[in-house]
Design brief:
By secondary structure, this protein is an alpha/beta fold. It folds into 2 domains: 155 residues, ATPase, nucleotide binding domain (Nucleotidyltransferase, domain 5), CATH 3.30.420.40; 169 residues, 2-Layer Sandwich (Nucleotidyltransferase, domain 5). It has 11 helices and 10 strands. The protein is globular. The structure holds 5'-O-[(R)-(carboxyoxy)(hydroxy)phosphoryl]adenosine and zinc ion. Zinc ion binds next to helix 4.
Length: 349
C-alpha cells in the first residue's frame, strides 16, 4: 500500500500527516499558531510565514515518527498549493518540493477546499470512515475563508453551486465573537456559549434564505452589533451574563439556519441525496446537530466530517493526494521544479 506524506501551511496551521493509499491515517500532526495571532485579533500574514518556517521541519519529522516511517518509506508527497496566504503556502510547497526532489518522489499539488470536502474518506482507528459515501455528492465547505456549495463528481472535481458574496461563515462567527470581546478565533467560544443560551432570544435576519444558493453574512453581523448596542452591553463583556449566551445562541442559530437550508436546497437543485459538510465551521455542535436532523427529514444522507478533520490539517491533504496519485496526478522532473502556488483566499480580518 503506498504511503503519502501530506503538508498543509495555507493559513495559520503548520501540519503534516502520513496517510496510506486507501485513506488510512497513520499520523496527523497539527501545529497551531493561534497564540501568535490571537493578540492581533486575526492572522498576520508576515508572522504566519515566519512561524511556518520555524515549525515545518519539526512537524514533518513528528508526522514521520508518529507513523513509524522514514522518508525512505514514502511513495509521494502531497501539498496544499492554494488557495491561501502566499507567504504561508510557499513554505509548505518549498518543503514538499525539496523532499520530493531529493527522494525522487512524485508531488501532488492540492486545492485546500477540495481537500476539506474529501476529508470524510479518511479512515482511522478511532472510527472515522466514509461509510456509504460515494460520488457524486453535494458538499458544503464552510470555514474561516470559505462558504461554498459544490457538486463533487470525483476526487478534486468540483463545480460551484453557490458561494458567499461577502464574509465566510467562519468570519461571521469570529467577528460576532470579537464584538463580544471573546478571543480569536471566536467560533469555538460562540459554540460553547450558545449551549447555555436561548436561540430565539434575539430576532436576527437569515440573509438570503430561500433565495438561491449564494450566501451573505455581513448584514447579520450588523444586526448582532445593533442587538448588543440595544442590550447596552459594553466590552469587555461579562461572559457569565446570561444575555451574552443568548446573543451567542441567537447568532449561531441564524448562521446555522442559513447553512442547513441552503445545503438541502443544493441537494434538491442537482437531484442528489448525499451531502458532505466540511471545514472548520463544520465542527460547530449546533450545525452538526441541526444538519443531521434536517437531512434525515428530507431523506438526505449527511456525512459530517469528524471534528478532528474539520479544522485545517494535513491528513485531508494526504488523503486527497492518495486519491489523485492513483489517477495519475503526480508531478515529477521539470513539472515538479516549476510547481507554483495559487492564491485567492483573503487573510482573516
Ligand atoms: O477550516 P479552518 O480551520 O481554516 C480555514 O480554512 O479557514 O476554519 C477556521 C474557522 C474559524 O473561523 C473558526 O472560528 C471556525 O472555523 N470554527 C468554528 C468552530 N471551530 C472552528 N466555528 C464555529 N463553531 C466551532 N466549533
Ligand atoms: Zn481550511
Amino acid at each position: 500500500m503506498p504511503l503519502i506524506l501530506g503538508i498543509e501551511s495555507s493559513c495559520d496551521e503548520t501540519a503534516a500527516a502520513v496517510v496510506t493509499g486507501d485513506g488510512e491515517v497513520r499520523s496527523n500532526v497539527v501545529h497551531s499558531q493561534i497564540p501568535v495571532h490571537a493578540r492581533y485579533g486575526g492572522v498576520v500574514p508576515e508572522l504566519a510565514s515566519r512561524n511556518h518556517m520555524l515549525a515545518i521541519r519539526p512537524v514533518v519529522e513528528q508526522a514521520l515518527s508518529d507513523a513509524d516511517v522514514t522518508l525512505d518509506d514514502l511513495d509521494a508527497v502531497s501539498v496544499t498549493a492554494g488557495p491561501g496566504l502566499a507567504g504561508s503556502l510557499l513554505v509548505g510547497l518549498q518543503a514538499a518540493k525539496a523532499i520530493a526532489w531529493a527522494r525522487g518522489l512524485p508531488i501532488v499539488p492540492i486545492n485546500h477546499i477540495a481537500a476539506h470536502v474529501h476529508a470524510p474518506f479518511l479512515r482511522d482507528a478511532a472510527g472515522a470512515g466514509p461509510g456509504a459515501l460515494r460520488f457524486p455528492y453535494v458538499a458544503l465547505a464552510v470555514s474561516g475563508g470559505h462558504t461554498s456549495l459544490y457538486r463533487v463528481d470525483a476526487p478534486g472535481e468540483m463545480t460551484v453551486l453557490g458561494q458567499t458574496l461577502d464574509d465566510a461563515a467562519g468570519e461571521a462567527f469570529d467577528k460576532v465573537a470579537k464584538m463580544m470581546g471573546l478571543p480569536y478565533p471566536g467560533g469555538v467560544y460562540i459554540d460553547r456559549l450558545a449551549q447555555r443560551g436561548r436561540a430565539d432570544a434575539i430576532d436576527l435576519p437569515r440573509p438570503m434564505l430561500h433565495r438561491g444558493l449564494d450566501f451573505s453574512f455581513s448584514g447579520l453581523k450588523t444586526a448582532v452589533r445593533h442587538a448588543l448596542d440595544g442590550l447596552a452591553l459594553t466590552a469587555p463583556l461579562e461572559v457569565d451574563d446570561p444575555r451574552i449566551a443568548d446573543v451567542a445562541a441567537s447568532a449561531q442559530a441564524a448562521i446555522v439556519d442559513v447553512l442547513v437550508s441552503k445545503s438541502l436546497d443544493a441537494c434538491a437543485s442537482v437531484g442528489l441525496d448525499r451531502l458532505v459538510v466540511a471545514g472548520g465551521v463544520a465542527s460547530n455542535s449546533g450545525l452538526r446537530a441541526r444538519l443531521a436532523v434536517a437531512a434525515r427529514e428530507r431523506g438526505i444522507t449527511a456525512t459530517i466530517t469528524p471534528a478532528r478533520y474539520c479544522t485545517d490539517n494535513a491528513a485531508m491533504v494526504a488523503g486527497l493526494g492518495a486519491a489523485l496519485l492513483s489517477r495519475g496526478h503526480g508531478l515529477t522532473g521539470a513539472e515538479l521544479l516549476t510547481l507554483d502556488i495559487h492564491t485567492t483566499r483573503r487573510p482573516a480580518r
